[in-house]
Amino acid sequence: MPFDLNSLLRPHIKDLKPYTSARDEYSGKEGIFLDANENPLGSVTIENFNRYPDPYQTSLKVELSKIKEVDPKQVFLGNGSDEAIDLLFRAFCNPGKDNVILLPPTYGMYEVSANINDVEVRKVSLTADFQLQPLKILEAADHNSKILFICSPNNPSGNKVKREDIYFLLRNFPGLVVVDEAYIDFSDEPSFTTELKNYPNLLVMQTFSKAWGLASLRLGMAFGSEEIIRILNKIKPPYNISGLTQDTVLHALKDKGKVDLMIKEILAERDFLELELKKLPFVEKIHPSHANFLLVKLPHANQVYEDLIKEKIIVRNRAKVTLCEDCLRISVGTRSENEAFIEALAGIGKLKNLKI
Ligand SMILES: Cc1ncc(COP(=O)(O)O)c(C=O)c1O
Question: For a tag site, which of 82, 135, 223, 295 has the least CB within 10 Å?
Fold first, then answer.
């Protein structure tokens, strides 16, 4: 059956009249603006922020779409990808009726957003080597399954997901297939954005929070069909991306070369961390990573986590997460941070006489 976006959409969203902001009606930059109840005198700060920003981030999308090789109409920008995740639930999932399919272990916000929106979560665990179980995913789905979230490279395991499994699901899953590529810049894997023309049910998410080093600005990207992007734009808060973020990122896009250099350095540091971890006799497993972190299995992970905190070294404790028992997730730091971490971990291992 051909994919029909309208049948996935919540009926009241189909009929929704969106808020029209003052800046929707006139897009020129010159003029006397007496339409939005702003402060005409300027701002309390040195730099002026007294005018509302472009609600659709047009200039930013034009430049970004050149780098990403997609049409600007296929780009949605959110206050972090977390905003796009939440909007997907609000657009497509009827609370108390619809469901989404999640593939643990995976990024935690999919489930939190589902819970906030009172949407059933159906979980189909990954395999022991963190790959998909495509047939089980289809078995778990029914006509109320609106979204499947696939994270590749996956958080917290770090591996990339087999492309042929994603293609299979794009062809067979009844709802939207979201491919979350938050960590794609650290991987040799091509983005799924090139497949947007072939799969109207595909939505690809990326973020400026990782490789671009702009986590604090909060800017996430979603790439999809013009129809899907129009729906997200219709229901988003009118000025969801601040002017400061739009301007800063527009400038940052000119510095793609610097991003590439940072990625190179982070990947070299990931290799360094892996090499050093391998020297510690109590480290049981280092999962192969295509991201800017390593998932590491070691004895008494909960205790090691606490001991590291005592030394003011904070890692992510994943010991209670499905398939990640006794695992800590270590973000790649600078050389001196990585050295300090390894030294502290080696010290804890020795003191506690850790053994595999
Ligand atoms: C897989 C994945 N998706 C999305 C996000 C959220 O990104 P953002 O900072 O753009 O909200 C994260 C953050 O850690 C993540 O790991």
Answer: 135
Q: For residue 172, give the amino acid letter.
A: N
Half-sphere CA count of 154, side-chain side, radius 13 A: 27
299 alpha carbon – ligand 1 mean position (Å): 28
**CA angle centred on 208, ends 204 and 210, rounded to 5°:** 100
Q: Could you give the CA distance from residue 161 to residue 346 in angstroms, rounded to a whole number?
A: 32
CA distance 317 to 306: 9
Q: Are 206 and 181 in contact (CB under 8 A)?
A: yes
Among protein residues, the one with the nearest Cα to ligand 1's atom 8 is 80
- pLDDT attached to residue 319: 96
Query: Residue 169 — pLDDT band, cuts 50, 70, 90?
Result: very high
CA–centroid distance, 82 to ligand 1, in Å, is 7
Give the count of beta carbons closer than 10 Å to the beta carbon of residue 235.
16
Q: Is residue 301 within 8 Å of residue 295, measured between CB atoms? A: no
Handedness of CA 254, 205, 245, 240 (dihedral sign): positive
Q: 215: how many CB neighbours lie within 10 A of its CB? A: 12
Q: Which helix (H) or strand (E) holds 317?
A: strand 316-317
Does the Cβ of 209 fall within 6 Å of ligand 1?
Answer: yes
Which residue owns the Cα nearest ligand 1 atom 11? 80
Residue 183 CA to ligand 1 center (angstroms) comes to 9
| Any atom of ligand 1 within 6 Å of the Cβ of 331 | no
Which tens digits make up the pLDDT trace of 210-249?
A: 999 999 999 999 999 999 999 999 999 999 999 999 999 9
- Output the CA 141–ligand 1 centroid distance in Å: 25
Facing residues of 100 across strands?
121, 147
> How large is the angle between the packed helices 256-278 and 335-351, nearest 10 degrees?
20
pLDDT tens digits, one per residue of 87-136 = 999 999 999 999 999 999 999 999 999 999 999 999 999 999 999 999 99
Confidence of residue 22 (pLDDT cuts 50, 70, 90): confident
pLDDT of residue 130: 98
What is the rounded CA–CA span in Å between residue 34 and residue 40? 9
